[in-house]
Every structure is written in structure tokens, then in C-alpha cells.
Specification:
This protein is mainly beta. It has 2 helices and 16 strands.
């Protein structure tokens, strides 16, 4: 009888063993490189695309002038905003720890703010509703789990995570069909979303051979290859041409 109980206990303990914690890659600070760059648009600024919100009085009241729905952000010197820049290849085999801080996507003025966001796989996404009307956030991924949830005014934030990298996840509101956002999910920390000056910078980058990509929702994607030696400081610049 004792031997049977011992066998049961050993079986139970064996079934409850947990996997060892992941071994995250750490960059050697004595070899870390730096990469900076800019994204520019070659051509005149495209015409705005005013949004009609007259189907939702609560949204229409939030704006004195029409909102531009193009998502096109351009600085005075040609810098291009709302561009997701990321290392597309060159980091294979390395596992990076997800940040503990959350990335926030707000629903403000009956628009998703920011238009383009980025986070690591496993990092928390907090979704807020700052409006006096209900919204419905509906990401439509291809490599992650789809979800679709309504959020009333004053409701608690929604917290979600994406398990796998994906470029890009389109987001819509099923209540207000003009609302659009895009989420870039990476399995490493080397990504950025440009503001109107089009600049980005990565520090603490391991030396290596990389493909760097820049993605824009209407202009497509451009890629460049670059090699970084120990402690290198390099730049990579992208120029998008008018395809609108």
C-alpha cells in the first residue's frame, strides 16, 4: 500500500513541475551599438480627408472643425509621422524580456489615439475610453487571437496582450466606422513610431547584420540592410514617394 501511495505522489509531483524561467538575452554594454535615422516624404502634403461624424451627435459635438481621417502626419521639413520602424530580421534566436509598463490606446474625440502604436509580445495594452459615448475596439490580427469588446463611457480600462509578433494589426470600432488604428507587435525592443519630424533612435543594440523596415499605412513598406560592428554609431534614412 505504501508503495502505491509513493507512486501516486511521485506521479502527482511530476505532473506539477513548472518550466524553468526564460533566459532573456542581455546586450553586452561594452559592444552595444547605436542606430538613428529619419523617415521623410518626397512630395507635397496629400489633401486631408475630412471625417463626417454626423451619424453620431455625441461625437460631432466634440469637434469645432472637421477631423482629418487620412492619418497622414508630415512636418514642415518633410519628416513623416505615424511610421512604424522596426528591425525586421537579424535578431533571430534572441529572447527579450517584455517591458513591465503598459502601452496605452485611448478613444478620444471619437478617434483612436495614437493612430499607430507599438509594443512587445507579452507587453500589456491598456485601452481607455475618454469619450462620453460608447466605443467598440476590435483588433483583427492574423497571427494573434482576435477580440472585440464594447467599452462604455467611464468603464474601466481594458487590458490585453498579444502573444506573437505581427506587423501590422488593424483596429476598428464597430460603432464608428471611421475610427482606425494600427498595432505593431515585436518580439524584441527595437522599434519606434515616428512623430512629425520623422526621427527615431535605438541604443543598446547588439552588433550584427540587420534588415530595418519602415511601414506606413498608405505608403507601404521600405527596407534597408545595415551592418553594425562593436560600439558602432550609424544612421539609416528612408524616403517615401507619393503613391496616393
Amino acid at each position: 500500500m505504501k508503495s502505491v501511495l509513493l507512486l501516486v505522489c511521485l506521479t502527482f509531483v511530476g505532473c506539477t513541475k513548472t518550466s524553468p524561467p526564460a533566459e532573456y538575452f542581455k546586450v553586452d554594454p561594452s559592444k552595444a551599438a547605436k542606430l538613428r535615422g529619419t523617415v521623410r516624404f518626397d512630395g507635397p502634403r496629400p489633401a486631408a480627408k475630412p471625417i463626417s461624424m454626423n451619424a453620431e451627435e455625441g461625437c460631432e459635438k466634440l469637434h469645432d472643425t472637421p477631423v482629418d481621417g487620412s492619418g497622414f502626419v508630415m512636418g514642415s521639413d518633410g519628416g513623416l509621422g505615424n511610421v512604424f520602424v522596426y528591425i525586421k530580421s537579424g535578431l533571430e534566436g534572441k529572447t527579450f524580456e517584455p517591458p513591465k509598463t503598459a502601452v496605452v490606446l485611448d478613444q478620444h474625440g471619437c478617434m483612436f489615439v495614437p493612430r499607430v502604436i507599438a509594443l512587445q509580445a507579452g507587453q500589456t495594452l491598456d485601452v481607455k475610453n475618454s469619450d462620453p459615448v460608447s466605443h467598440n475596439i476590435h483588433p483583427n490580427p492574423q497571427n494573434n487571437r482576435e477580440w472585440n469588446q464594447q467599452q462604455s463611457p467611464g468603464a474601466p480600462d481594458l487590458s490585453r496582450r498579444f502573444a506573437r509578433p505581427e506587423v501590422m494589426i488593424p483596429v476598428k470600432c464597430n460603432i464608428h466606422n471611421w475610427m482606425r488604428s494600427y498595432i505593431g507587435v515585436m518580439d524584441h525592443p527595437y522599434f519606434a513610431v515616428t512623430t512629425a519630424d520623422g526621427s527615431f533612435e535605438w541604443t543598446n543594440l547588439p552588433p550584427g547584420h540587420y534588415t530595418v523596415a519602415a511601414w506606413h499605412e498608405t505608403l507601404g513598406e521600405e527596407v534597408q540592410k545595415i551592418s553594425l560592428s562593436d560600439k558602432a554609431e550609424a544612421s539609416v534614412n528612408f524616403t517615401f514617394h507619393n503613391r496616393l
